[in-house]
Amino acid sequence: MRKALVAGNWKMHGRIEQNKLLLDGLLTQLSGLPEADIDVVICPPLVYLAQIEALIKGSSVALGSQDVSRFSSDGAHTGESSAEMLADLGVRYVIVGHSERRSEHDETDDQVATKVVNALALELTPIVCVGETLEQREADQVADVISRQLKGAISSLRRSEAERLVIAYEPVWAIGTGKTATPEQAQEVHAFIRQYLTSVFDEELSQGVTLLYGGSVNSTNAAVLFEQVDIDGGLIGGASLKSDEFTAICRAAALSTING
């Protein structure tokens, strides 16, 4: 049975005092969740990684980064942070290929692939994001888009590397819009992702990889999304900035694992 995972992507939000208040509340509320049923990850902005690492020290919450450099070694790369630097700060997960990075920074599939390799080389777990725009969905291109993005991310990986991935399906049209894919729509794409992994590797690997859904997940819709057979948790945006909302989402994910 795959373990549930919920990752909070704070995006460009946070201030030192606000972060402390949020983590104080979150750690208190999460303390009742059984660690055996769920992994919880917090991905703050880069400048707050050290603060959050200190705040979650000794807890079951893991530290994640919202990005990682495509450059693997120190050098003249202004503004970049390598996988080695992130690991040095205690980071365990990295979000790779988020749609906002793809659209706002022109991040290509090849660059996503390089970031995945760099993260894996430092024993970091990449959370690889895939997802279609509304125009692509309406043009019946979902399978083409998802398979292209997956191929770009995993084509150079050995099986032992691919089985360490987490893959997050985030339909671009549902990110920060208040719109959410129906449970059936989300499940259909998650099932397609598993089928794709089976075709490239094998069914054992595909059934072992953790798949997340992201796109306006909240405490109201989390349970029905996580009840779907191929959805193992969520990559959470705005709701991760509210301790009670985020805890409720984590609880729904943990219960879905218990209930099988």
Automatic annotation (TrEMBL):
The active site is at H98, E170. Gene3D superfamilies: Aldolase class I (3.20.20.70). PROSITE patterns: TIM_1 (PS00171), TIM_2 (PS51440). GO terms for biological process: gluconeogenesis; glyceraldehyde-3-phosphate biosynthetic process; glycerol catabolic process; glycolytic process. Substrate binds at N9, W10, K11, G176, S216, G237, G238. It is found in: Cytoplasm. Signal peptide: none annotated. It comes from the Bacteria. GO terms for cellular component: cytosol. GO terms for molecular function: triose-phosphate isomerase activity. Pathway: Carbohydrate biosynthesis; gluconeogenesis; Carbohydrate degradation; glycolysis; D-glyceraldehyde 3-phosphate from glycerone phosphate: step 1/1; Carbohydrate metabolism; erythritol degradation. Its EC number is 5.3.1.1. It catalyses: D-glyceraldehyde 3-phosphate = dihydroxyacetone phosphate. Keywords: Cytoplasm, Gluconeogenesis, Glycolysis, Isomerase. Involved in the gluconeogenesis. Catalyzes stereospecifically the conversion of dihydroxyacetone phosphate (DHAP) to D-glyceraldehyde-3-phosphate (G3P). NCBIfam families: tim. Homodimer. Belongs to the triosephosphate isomerase family. PANTHER family: TRIOSEPHOSPHATE ISOMERASE. This is Triosephosphate isomerase.
